[in-house]
Amino acid sequence: MKKLAVFFGIVLFVIGGCRKIKSIGEATIVVHKQYFEPGTDIPFNGERTSNYITGEIRTKATYSDGYSEIIVNFYRNQQKRAKLVFADGGRGDMIVHIEWYKSGQKKYESADNVIREWYKNGQLKAKANYRNDSGTLHGITKTWYEDGTLKGKESYSYGKLDGERVKWDTDGNKILVQVYEEGKLVES
Fold first, then answer.
1. Cα 158 from Cα 136, distance rounded (Å)
2. What is the per-residue pLDDT for 14?
3. Cα 39-43-49 angle, rounded to 5 deg
4. Which residue numbers in the chain have pLDDT < 50?
5. How many Cα neighbours within 13 Å face the side chain of 174?
6. What pTM was computed for the model?
7. CA dist 120 to 97, 99, 123, 125, Å?
8. CA gap 110, 96 in Å, rounded
9. How far apart are CA 123 and CA 6, in angstroms?
10. Which of 61, 122, 152, 171 is least buried, going by the fewest C-beta atoms within 10 A?
């Protein structure tokens, strides 16, 4: 999380300082700043880009009423690296966060209260549901091995394990079954 915050902090500083990301423990806070036309009090509307020293596009940001709604970062080969989309015309929380491998294969996506992560080969690595209001895990979380074999399944309620937790080995054999209630192990 800290690596991501530092990465986007650098990207956002380069794009014009309209947002600042701070890491406080495990929490990441986005501080909204309004960007104005140079030398005026007129909020900026449109697109801004920053480039690598060699000329390739590094970052594109779309602004509405001075707030960034969409920020896209690129690798030098011009494949997308990351995309952030913010709610309420750029004034609200981040509602979409996507990352890609340099090859163009999707690596990570957080949208619609679901987080997904992929291996470089395109196989789904993890899928988790979360509550948008608190960012805590809520619902079923699943993980897979790189070959697609189910690795684990857990049930969460408001960030605490609640229900069955099962793990499998690479051959598909159950190696762990536990039952939790409100974060406490009740059966193993």
1. 6
2. 34
3. 85
4. 1-31
5. 8
6. 0.75
7. 18, 12, 7, 10
8. 6
9. 28
10. 171
